Amino acid sequence: MNDPLLAELARIVGPAHVLADGDLSAWEQDWRKRARGKALAVVRPGSTPEVAAVVKACAAAGHALVPQGGNTGLVVGGIPDGSGTQVVLSLQRMQRVRSLDADNLTVTVEAGCILQQLQQAAEAAGLLFPLSLAAEGSCTIGGNLATNAGGTQVLRYGNARDLCLGLEVVTPQGEVWDGLSGLRKDNTGYDLRDLFIGSEGTLGIITAATLKLYPQPAATLTAWAAVPSMDAAVRLLTLARERLAAGLTGFEVMGRFALSLVVRHFPQLRVPFSEDAQEAAAPWGVLLELADTESEGHARAQLEALLEAALDEGCAVDAVVAESLAQARELWHVRESIPLAQAEEGLNIKHDIALPISRIPAYCEETGALLAREIEGVRLVTFGHLGDGNLHYNVQAPEGADGREFLRTQEDRINALVYEQVRRYEGSISAEHGVGALKAETLPDYKPAVALGLMRAIKQALDPQGLMNPGKVLAG
Amino acid sequence: MNDPLLAELARIVGPAHVLADGDLSAWEQDWRKRARGKALAVVRPGSTPEVAAVVKACAAAGHALVPQGGNTGLVVGGIPDGSGTQVVLSLQRMQRVRSLDADNLTVTVEAGCILQQLQQAAEAAGLLFPLSLAAEGSCTIGGNLATNAGGTQVLRYGNARDLCLGLEVVTPQGEVWDGLSGLRKDNTGYDLRDLFIGSEGTLGIITAATLKLYPQPAATLTAWAAVPSMDAAVRLLTLARERLAAGLTGFEVMGRFALSLVVRHFPQLRVPFSEDAQEAAAPWGVLLELADTESEGHARAQLEALLEAALDEGCAVDAVVAESLAQARELWHVRESIPLAQAEEGLNIKHDIALPISRIPAYCEETGALLAREIEGVRLVTFGHLGDGNLHYNVQAPEGADGREFLRTQEDRINALVYEQVRRYEGSISAEHGVGALKAETLPDYKPAVALGLMRAIKQALDPQGLMNPGKVLAG
Q1: CB B285 within 8 Å of CB B273
Q2: Distance from C-alpha of B168 to C-alpha of B443, rounded to nearest angstrom
Q3: Closest CA to B294 of A123, A292, A273, A16
Q4: CA of B433, closest CA in chain A: separation in Å?
Q5: Could you give phi then psi for residue A178, rounded to 5 degrees?
Q6: CA dist A444 → A450, A452, A456, B196 (Å)
Q7: How far is A455 from B171, CA to CA, in rounded Å?
Q8: A50 to each of A56, A142, A403, B406, how far by Cα in Å?
């Protein structure tokens, strides 16, 4: 630790928690392995005052900080650049559940708490913390908040933002804002909480949060519907919202080709209605989840009545309700296996887009036709959270083509085509994954200049030295 | 119009929409008649480009702007100061519903749209816009968003903030940010929407918004429970949330003295369980509302089962479910008559506080005892949205005492006592009414300095001239 900054950091957090030598790839390499940075050091504070002291030390030395949680982000938002000058501030040691208030339905946790551990802490108190996403076994709640994570329960409970009542944040000046709050209403000034949520560590470091809890439902049921068109899927969604209201906790759509990849690469999984004839009649699958406060019997009656109505109205051609928890898990497993099956099939170009739900059928039809015209044999892996208007609209090379070559020659062109379509349909080029470094350069092409100007003014006001996760969200 | 600014404004919006002479009290006087300002002029633009041009003209001339909707605010946030130099920008002419998208469950409206008209536009499409509050016949959606208004449906649907997907805003520089969006997910940068919501016109002028709609429930039922203590009311709330989940759309609590004022001043209203013996056993009344997607029969069975369980567990001593819509309206009418009955009784000191729900029983007991010790015979009018942890904790002079004299001698002392208690219980001194000019001077005593510093930095960055509603939220 010859560097005076490293010596100072070691003094603050203890020498064991400043990592500057050896293999730092766990912190320097992003989860999808799209980029690899080089850190001056990884520092792992154990408390909020230590975070504040680290920030002050780095600010005094003029070194940039990159906050990091579980490093499971998908947009290269949590790793350092290649300069070797940035300090990775890992929140992983700050895992404590500070308090849980059952009557107020709130829990206060430190930023490094793993999402799954938080879910389990709630469950142990007989309550539900509903945020749920693929990386829940290793992502942290701090990262979830910094990126305003989504997942499969957003339709009912909202994004990470909607689940948060208060934050503790270390500012770029190393001050601690204690905005932890168990209040559901507080109109005493600007909404700092929501400004830090989703800012991807560029305005300050979230060190703790007070989050909403919910009573556990009495029963949760899952169904699968085979649907003749995206238009029918939207009609089924409307019907489900009318009949189930807030009981509808999940509504996922999966395209025929996406499901065929699961059949191909995970033959042990049973994909409903995947025979050729069935597929032709119903090119989309829909996974529905209903949470009920009364009983499983009531839930089943509700769900069956919905599906009967859907069959009558022609917005589903076939449907099945899971008979057991195991069967429900199997259906979800199919949905969750799509990204893995796609990876098995080869490299592909991913898009995490949001659209007004009403415009998704036309978007899909038109964009699919445009892509097919541009690239013969192109294959679309379309799936996602239709209830939130959020599609993972991924583009796979033609059968047999080389994925790497496809990315090299087509990625920019396909991105431009897809994003231009998203703009035409008044959508967003990042629904739930954020901007990070991956989309920071692209963002100005699709975000109004006035909005970017406001963002830059806020960034400049809060972080005038520009030391908080530079190059993320706002390109340099 | 000799003043060159007024001439310029008349050129922009038309001479008929610049009011500088005559009685301007409708714009200069706040709703509760606590303050009266003096405007240079009232300007009433008819479109967003006109708003932008007005802002540019005022900025060029160095005149401050005070945006105003229905002028129903309770914290002196929408009227000019006494200098005679500020321009009131009234959004009242911008009332249009621009579009409604039933499949996306969204509506886009201009800021001056009256809340009730918006509710009716949704209803005409067979949908629900759930924001509901006492002033809905005259308040505007722009004002609702600028103050992040609450009301009686927050428990289920959230505040105005939670109902908004996107905004159109004119910045202090007179630029138009088109952030209108029908998207439920959009992680492309800082949350500008929520920054403008609740900023009370101090960062820019909201000119339009895209808002969430919901399917209409099949049935809505109302019940009244007589409750032996505030602690029992909290237990009843927990029970109701467990059993009804999102079906529980309202949970209002009303203290015995508050209800006795309704009995005294509105003898034509039937207040349930208001005989002396009943009141002694149950010093609190609770109004519950259940919205059900199935049927009235299902709703009634659910609500009756809940109330039976509550009686069994001792968190209610008596209860009644409204038998008809008329009876339900009558129960709500009792609740809504409390502020009017209190006004009939004389002047009083109002507090709009939020607390963690779990701590409300102890807060009420301790604060009530403190006040009784300080002021012999003091009377507490306590009522509000217990489901949101939001109490209107109002203090009335002793029986027979002069209200004006009571306010003159006691208001500062009582405010200090109540707010100090709110601080001790980790609450907020403004739950849903905002800060305005009324609480701007007080806020720094109860808000962390770091938060205020962040707010001032944002204000300075976005409105460096300090011309947007100066003196509101942040004192000069």
Answers
A1: yes
A2: 29
A3: A292
A4: 7
A5: -90, 90
A6: 10, 7, 12, 21
A7: 13
A8: 10, 16, 45, 50
* Chain A hits for B56, Cβ within 8 Å: none
How confident is the prediction for chain A on average, in pLDDT? 96
Do the beta carbons of residue A414 and residue A395 sit within 8 Å?
Answer: yes
Inform me whether the pLDDT recorded for A443 exceeds 80. Answer: yes
pLDDT tens digits, one per residue of A11-64: 999 999 999 999 999 999 999 888 999 999 999 999 999 999 999 999 999 999
pLDDT tens string A259-318: 999 999 999 999 999 888 777 889 999 999 999 999 999 999 999 999 999 999 999 999
Q: What tokens were used for A269? A: 């999984």
Q: Give the Cβ contact number of residue B330 at 10 Å.
A: 17
The strand pair at B106-110 and B97-101 is best described as antiparallel
Report helix angle A360-374 to A403-424, nearest 10: 140
pTM over 0.90: yes
Amino acid, res. B417 = L
What residues of A are in contact with residue B127 (Cβ under 8 Å)? Answer: none
**Per the CB < 8 Å rule, is B171 touching A428?**
no
Asked if A168 and A52 count as a contact pair (C-beta separation under 8 A), the reply is no
| Pairing relationship of beta strands B127-128 and B97-101 according to DSSP bridges | unpaired
Q: What distance in Å separates the CA atoms of residue B361 and residue B359, rounded to the nearest whole number? A: 6
Mean pLDDT, residues A87-106: 98
Closest of B187, B416, B387 to residue B287, by C-alpha: B387
Under-70 pLDDT residues of chain B: 1-2
pLDDT given for residue B314 in this prediction = 97
Residue B267 burial (C-beta neighbours within 10 Å; 0-12, 13-18, 19+): exposed
Average pLDDT of every residue of chain B? 96
The token pair at B211 is: 């808002």
Task: Find, among A169, A19, A14, A30, the residue nearest to A87 by Cα.
Answer: A19
- Can you read off the two tokens belonging to residue A26? 């766990």
Instruction: Report the alpha-carbon distance of residue B232 to residue B286 in Å, rounded.
Output: 10
Q: Does B298 touch chain A if contact means CB atoms closer than 8 Å?
A: no
Q: Order the strands of the A97-101 sheet from edge to edge.
A: A97-101, A106-110, A205-212, A164-170, A176-179
pLDDT of B410 reads: 94
Indicate the range of A93-97, A192-196, A273-277, B410-414 predicted with least confidence. A273-277
This model of the complex carries an ipTM of 0.97
Please indicate whether, in this complex, the C-beta atoms of A473 and B190 are within 8 angstroms of each other.
yes
Residues B193 and B186: their CA atoms lie apart, in Å, by 11
- Of A197, A173, A193, A174, which Cα lies nearest the Cα of A183? A193
Please give the Cα distance from A378 to B136 (Å, whole number). Answer: 53
Angle A255-A261-A263 from CA coordinates, rounded to 5°: 105
Name residues 254-293 of chain A within 8 A of B (Cβ).
291, 293
Q: How far is B170 from chain A (nearest CA, A)?
A: 10
Indicate the DSSP class of residue B16: G
| Residue B106 vs residues A356, B140, B216: alpha-carbon distances, Å | 9, 18, 14
Cα-Cα-Cα-Cα dihedral sign, residues A99, A100, A105, A109: positive
Beta bridge mates, A285: A226, A254
- Is it the case that residue A215 has pLDDT exceeding 60? yes
pLDDT of A278: 77
Q: Which two tokens stand for residue A64?
A: 């940039």
Q: Give the three-state DSSP class for A29.
A: strand
**Per-residue tokens: B347:** 């002047």
Cα A85 to Cα B428: distance, rounded to the nearest angstrom = 42
* A163, pLDDT greater than 60: yes
Give phi and psi for A405, each to the nearest 5.
-65, -40
Q: Which candidate in A203, A393, A419, A454 is best for mutational testing of the B interface (most B CBs within 10 A)?
A: A454
Q: Which residue has the tokens 């949760």?
A: A220
Alpha carbon of B429: minimum distance to chain A alpha carbons (Å)? 7
